[in-house]
Each structure stands twice: as structure tokens, then as C-alpha cells.
C-type lectin domain-containing protein (Drosophila ananassae), 240 residues
Amino acid sequence: MRLLLIFFIFLFVKSCFSSCDVGESPPECAAYCFRVVKPCLSYLDVLQNRVNAYESVVPSDILARVSLTDTKMDILGRQMAVLQEKEEDYQKKIIKLKDRLAKGVPSHFGNFQKLGQKYYYVEKELRETWHGAVKKCHEMGGFLVSLQSQQEIDAISGKLKEYSGYWIDVTDQFKEGVYVSISTGLGTTFLKWDQNEPSQNGEQCVEIHTYKEPPVMNDNVCSNKKYFICESSAKVDDTK
């Protein structure tokens, strides 16, 4: 458009000079033609400024849009990576859950919690025999709780149901009256018996019950089903 306008101005100026009267001096003719052409020249200058502005603004705007698009794509890529990582994590949890279900480990098993100085898992829904409780704790990566002091009983007592019994790792199945920890294979050094306990009479596995406060120990028949408490030497997250 700019070139076309210049071409028309050139033709007009040429025509203007050719149409000057013979009696007019060249300066007078030139002044007349300049007055006529001046608006066109002014518009040409405005047009040039617009073109310059367009050429300077449009490329930078395009670059800004491209940069913004790249930024959005980068953010989207990171979000996709996070989602993929979460999906892989969920897949691992599903596989772990299937393995646990195949072994008979209930799906509601949660994480071990730090209570006092140790990590415990207190099962308050599933009841097992003493041997079943030993197996379940092993499947969770721990062992049936081995209570070593009154402080440890105090640490877990707030997590126990009222009027309930929980298997611990103590038994005298190997020799009547000799209580050992199945977790360590050693004789127990701490026993907090209830009054008139242990009664024995075929009761060879030990529970801690909450029929009294604070909880105390009682021997019971190993085949009876009770809640149980698992312990871990380190924090165990069996959902991963």
C-alpha cells in the first residue's frame, strides 16, 4: 500500500509540473504542486509510523505468546510427571494390598505409630488366636508386642479398648510356669499380673486386658481369639 501511494504521488507531481502555465516561473509552479502534495506526504509519514509500530510490536507479542505457551507446556509436563508418579505409587499399593489380602491380612491395617519410645500397631477390629496374632504381626513387618516396663504399658493404654484383651508375646508353652518372649526367645523380665494370676490350667498364652486400670496381664487359652498389639523396632508403613 505504501509503494502504491508513493507511485500515485509521483504521477501526481509529474502531472502537476506538466500542467503548469507557460508564464509561471518554476518556483511558483513547484510551490503550487508542493501545497497540493503536502497532505499526501503527511499521510505517507503517518503510514510509515504505523508500519514501524506494527513491525516492532507484532513480533514481540508473538514471542511473548510463544514464551507463555512454552511455560504452560512445561508446567503441564511437570504435572503429568507428578500424576504418573502417583499412578505408579497407587499401583504399588494395589499390588501390596492384593498380596496382603491373599495372605489374609485385613485391608484396614494401618501404619505403626510411635507411642512412647517404640512403634506399635494396636489391632482393635480383628480378633486372632495367639498364634494367628504372631503370624499377622510378622506379615506387617513387626512382631507381637514385647512389653518391658510399666512405662510401655502406660504409653499404649490410651489406644486400648475398654474391657478387652490383647495378645502379647509372652507364653509358657515350652515349659509350664516358665514364661518366655516369643519375639526374643528369652525369659521375660517384666510381668504385670492381675490379681490371682497366672492361673495356668492349660492357659499358656498371655494377654494384657483393660478390665482394670491400668491394664494388667492374664494368662489365657492360646486358641481363644483376642485383639493383639504388634511392635516394630523401626517405623513400618505397610501401605507402601
Q: What stands out?
A: The mean pLDDT is 80. The radius of gyration is 46 Å. DSSP finds four helices and eight strands in the chain.
